[in-house]
Structures are given as C-alpha cells and as structure tokens.
Design the sequence.
C-alpha cells in the first residue's frame, strides 16, 4: 500500500503519465473530428436540427482535447523529459526556458501539433461566434473544417507522432537548432500558422457554399472577417520572419526569395485578393465564382507551403523535415482538399450567378484589376519557386532561381498595383468618370512627383529605383489620406476634419493598410537603391571611416553564454567627434551541437541602420569586419506593421464581425438546401 501511494507521488511517474495523457487526448480529438465531419453534414442535407447541432459542441471539445495534447508536449519540453524522443532531439537542459518552449514547434512533429491545435481553435471560434449563421451553412462549414482536421490527425498519429518514447532515456538532449534560438523565431511560426490555418475557415465557407449552391452578400460578409484575421496574422508572421532573417542570419538582407519565404508569401497575396474580391460580392453581388475560387486556392497554397517545408523537395534554412514519405502524405492531403474543392467548384460554379453589373470605369473594375495583379504575381512567384524542381524532374538539369528573377518578374506588378490603388479606392461603385474621380487626387499626385524629383536631385548615384519607390510610396500615402478626407462630405474644412474622428474603423483600417503598403514600397526601394557595404580586415584601435561614422575595433574577447561560447567584438561608433554607441557582433559556437552561428550587431535608427558582422581571425591579428549602411530599414518594419494594424482596425469594426448585419439578409435569403 505504501509503495503504491509513493508511486502515485513519484515525479517521474507523474511526468510520464502527463505525456501519455497528451497522446490519448490527441486520439480523442481525432475521433471527435470524425464525428464532427460526418454527423452535421448528414443533418444539413436532411435538415435535421439535432444532427446539425452536434457541430458546435464537437468543435469546442476538439479544441479542448488538442489544447490538452499541446499543453502536455509543452510540459515535456519545459521539464526536459528526455524519454520523449522529440524532446531529446530538440531540447537541452541548459537551454533558456523561452527556447525550451520554442522547441515545441521548432521541429516537424511539434509544428504539426501546433498546426492542428490552431485549426481546432479556428473551428471552435467559428462555433462560438457563428451563432447568427444559418444553421445549414454553419453545420456544413464546421464539417469541412473537421474533415481537414481528420486528415492531419491521421498524418500526425501515423507518421509524425510527437509523443513517441525512447527505449533508453539519455541523460541530456541534443538541443534546438541554434539559428532557431532567437526571440523572433519564438513568435514567427505561431503567427504564421494562425495565418495559414486561418484560411481554412474561408475554405470551409467556400465548400459549404458550393454544397448549398448559394453565394450572396451575407455569405461574403461572414467570410471577410475570417479572411481578414488570417491575413493580419500572416502579415505579422512574415514580418517577424523577415526581421529574424535580418537580425540573426548575418547576411544583412530582409528577404531572400527563399522557397519557404515564398511559401508564406503566396497565400498572403491570394488572401489579399480574396479580401478585395469579397468586397465586390458583398456590395454588388458580383465576382461570386472568382471569390469562391480564390478561397479554395488561398488555402491550397497554405497546404503547398506545408508540403514544401516538410517534403524535402526544396532546400531551405527554414525547412522542418527532409522526408519524402511524409511529403507524399501531405501531397495526398493537398490533392484531396484542393483538388476536391476545384472539382466541386467546376461542378457547381454555374450556380454562382452574378447579379451586379458595372462599367469599365468603376470601383468594381479597379478591384478586378487588383485581383488579377495579385493572382498573377502569386503565379509568378509559384513558377519561380517550383521551377528548379520541375527542371530536375523533367529536364534532368540542376537550376536555381534566385533574387534577380523574382525582383525582375515581381516588381512590375507592384508598380502597377501602386499606381492603380489610390484611384481605384476613390472611384464610385457601378460606374464612374475617371476625370472627376481623379480631381481630388491631383494634390497627392503633385506632392508625390515633387518628392520623387527631390530624391533624384539629391542622390549621389543616379538610379531610378529610389525616386520611383518614393513616388509610389508618397502616392499611396497621400492617396489614402485623400480617400479618408473625401469621406467626410462637404462643408467647412474644420467641420470635415472633426468628422474624420467619427468615420467607421473600417475606413480608417483601409487607409492605414494602404498607407502602410506605400511606406513598405518606399522602404524596400530605398534600401535596395541606397544601401552601402564595406568589407575589410580591421585591426584593434585602428579606426576607419564608413557611411559618415568612425569605426574602431577596440577588442575581441571570448564570452561564455548559457549554452554557447562566443567570440565577441567591441566596435565603437563615433560621429562628428562624439561617441554614438558600442556594437558587439558575435560568432557563437553552441556546445551541444558544436554549431557556429553569426550574431550581427545593429545600431537601429529611424532613417538608417548600421549593421556590423564579425568574421574570422586573419593573419597579423586582424579580423574580417563587414559593415553595412542600411537606409529606411525601420520604415520597412513600420510599413508592414501599419498594414497589419489597418487590418486589425477593420476587423474591430462592428459591421464587419461575423454575421453583423447579416442576420436579416440571411433570413431573406433562400433556406439552406
């Protein structure tokens, strides 16, 4: 009896039971998803309210079980339970707690568990906050959402079990990949997955609408908030990944057109197109088929990203796994849902009758052009991403497609979107006169051209990239402000300015997001056009001049970190005879894996960053030192965050929440079939 009681309180036994409980909870979630995928769908087909009602509690229960499972795996990482193979391969007792938690999703198996956890989170939110949805549409959407979950539960449980045990537990683990031990990577994957997986709700709504054979303004109003939330999360995720690449990898770049970076960028482009297309469906009941197609493709490209990261078909610093067998499983999931969705679309697209009629010059036409540019630019990125694979398979040639191709092929679409966007945003619905619509934008156009001319006159190297980027950025920012101002009606200027504060949040969100795009375009163009680089062998206390600063390598010393050894330099920056700061670039070697990493030192400023990277020791006692002057990098982060903030402002508008204002439209609509 005493031994039994002692065993109940044995910490090792309790820890083992928590892990096993997490595995069991994942299995229960899979069975719950099977019920949710089948019963409500049958109920909706037969109009059985009781069967349709199963979807809501099942979605909540599924989220509860996956939450327990994910919490159990996190507990195993935090407590360093090396009997779990995944913990042994991706953690170490000396790691800081933050990176122990990061280790949960810093690998293939754990990241897939996070994937399904977020999938069930969105499903539960749809059940909790979709009370005003028509019962048939809600039941079908939740069934489709659960069907996606069933496929991924099968993938995890049969090929990627995160709770797999080791027969003999080691004394310590192998540690997390050192380049993933960064605060940016602690948040980057969760936000990215919130965006990827959030598009599953739009997909579920699209398939539910195809099954019902009905798409109307109310449907578009229900779809938009979910798509907008996914787009905002995806924007945050991409920005965090870009900032991580800039600060951690030591290459000095913000975007390398890496295949995995492209995998997140493609659904972002399609989600942006879907948002704008849904506006046309909501306002004018046009572009119905196109909007359904975009919803299917946006989630399909999210699955393509999952495939690229885990199949081993591409090489990337971001890739989680190199396992073709797992890749085949994901490819089957991609074919099932994307291919099945497209087949259903082909069969039912004729039922998506468009009602709205609009002229060639109208806001609808501008949104169509916007959609075409976004969709074609996504296709260009897709072709460039997979072309090396196609070349290897069909032409037996090893090719690489790098930044020059993407920069050349993608830039014209950005320029076209930047030119058209302010005009399209201010055009009336249905039909418009271009001359009349352009009249309020003339001051914005003049200011943008003036700033571009000033940049051309002031720059030392004659390149059009910087001035064109400044023109597009200013045109978008001033155009967004003009759009806001025109929404205040007529009257005295003071009264109109007071009305600005009373404009709906969606109007402010649109303006902030469009202005953020302008700031981002200007920052990227300025960075490419005006960046400077200096590479030299620096010697202690031997100053040199670069980018208006005096650099002095004062010393290089060895530093012992919590789980690494570091060679750290002290580089003093002076300007106009005054000390500015001391930068400390490092070269680290992580003791567990014996892996070297480069830690750049960055002097952040609003107009220009100074970026320093320490290289190897040279003969004679010097060290290679790479220094960069990076103009407008902070503006890049500001612009992208403005886009996400704009999306958040629009999402907070009561009119655009799920089913807000849609109840009456739903009641007037045709009952669910």
Sequence:
């Amino acid at each position: 009896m005493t031994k039994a009681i002692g065993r109940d309180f044995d910490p090792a036994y309790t820890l083992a039971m928590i892990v096993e409980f997490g595995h069991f909870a994942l299995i229960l979630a899979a069975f719950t998803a099977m019920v949710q995928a089948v019963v409500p769908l049958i109920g909706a087909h037969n109009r059985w309210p009781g069967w349709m009602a199963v979807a809501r509690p099942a979605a909540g229960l599924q989220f509860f079980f996956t939450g327990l499972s994910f919490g159990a795996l996190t507990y195993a990482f935090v407590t360093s339970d090396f009997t779990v193979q995944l913990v042994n391969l991706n953690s170490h007792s000396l790691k800081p707690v933050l990176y122990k938690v990061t280790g949960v999703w810093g690998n293939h198996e754990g990241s897939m568990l996070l994937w399904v956890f977020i999938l069930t989170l969105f499903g539960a939110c749809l059940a909790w906050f979709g009370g005003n949805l028509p019962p048939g549409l809600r039941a079908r959407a939740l069934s489709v959402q659960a069907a996606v979950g069933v496929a991924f539960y099968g993938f995890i449980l049969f090929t990627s079990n995160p709770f797999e045990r080791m027969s003999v537990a080691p004394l310590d683990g192998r540690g997390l990949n050192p380049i993933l031990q960064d605060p940016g990577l602690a948040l980057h994957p969760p936000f990215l997955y919130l965006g990827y997986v959030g598009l599953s709700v739009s997909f579920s709504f699209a398939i539910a609408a195809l099954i019902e054979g009905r798409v109307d303004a109310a449907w578009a109003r229900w779809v938009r908030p979910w798509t907008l939330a996914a787009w905002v999360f995806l924007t945050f995720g991409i920005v965090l990944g870009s900032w991580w690449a800039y600060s951690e990898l030591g290459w000095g770049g913000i975007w390398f057109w890496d295949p995995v970076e492209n995998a997140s960028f493609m659904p972002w482009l399609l989600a942006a197109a879907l948002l704008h297309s849904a506006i046309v469906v909501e306002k004018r009941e046009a572009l119905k088929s196109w909007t359904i197609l975009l919803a299917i493709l946006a989630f399909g490209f999210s699955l393509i990203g999952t495939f690229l990261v885990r199949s081993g078909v591409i090489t990337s610093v971001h890739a989680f796994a190199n396992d073709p067998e797992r890749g085949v499983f994901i490819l089957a999931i991609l074919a099932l849902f994307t291919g099945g969705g497209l087949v259903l679309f082909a069969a039912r697209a004729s039922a998506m009758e468009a009602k709205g009629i609009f002229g060639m010059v109208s806001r609808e036409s501008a949104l169509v052009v916007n959609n075409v540019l976004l969709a074609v630019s996504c296709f260009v990125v897709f072709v460039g991403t997979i072309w090396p694979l196609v070349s290897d398979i069909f032409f037996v040639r090893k090719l690489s497609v790098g930044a020059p191709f993407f920069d050349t092929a993608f830039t014209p679409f950005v320029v076209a979107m930047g030119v058209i966007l302010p005009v399209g945003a201010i055009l009336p619905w249905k039909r418009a006169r271009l001359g009349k619509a352009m009249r309020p934008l003339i001051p914005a156009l003049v200011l943008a051209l003036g700033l571009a001319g000033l940049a051309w006159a002031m720059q030392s190297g004659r390149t059009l990239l910087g001035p064109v980027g400044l023109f597009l950025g200013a045109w978008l920012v001033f155009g967004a402000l003009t759009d806001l101002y025109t929404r205040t009606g007529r009257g005295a200027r003071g009264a109109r300015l007071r009305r600005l504060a009373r404009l709906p949040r969606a109007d402010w969100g649109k303006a902030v997001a469009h202005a953020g795009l302008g700031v981002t375009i200007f920052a990227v163009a300025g960075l490419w056009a005006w960046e400077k680089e200096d590479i030299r062998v620096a010697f202690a206390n031997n100053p040199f001049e670069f980018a208006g600063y005096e650099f002095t390598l004062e010393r290089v010393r060895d530093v012992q970190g919590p789980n690494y050894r570091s060679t750290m330099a002290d580089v003093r920056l002076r300007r106009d005879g005054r000390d500015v700061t001391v930068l400390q670039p490092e070269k680290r070697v992580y003791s567990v894996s014996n892996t070297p990493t480069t830690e750049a030192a960055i002097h952040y400023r609003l107009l220009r960053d100074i970026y320093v990277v320490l290289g190897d020791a040279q003969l004679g006692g010097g060290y290679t030192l790479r220094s960069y002057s990076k103009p407008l990098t902070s503006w890049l982060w500001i612009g992208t965050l403005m886009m996400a903030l704009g999306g958040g402002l629009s999402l907070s508008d009561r009119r655009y929440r799920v089913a807000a204002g849609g109840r009456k439209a739903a009641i007037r609509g045709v009952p669910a079939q």
Q: What stands out?
A: The CA atoms of residues 334 and 340 lie 9 Å apart. The longest helix spans residues 11-46.
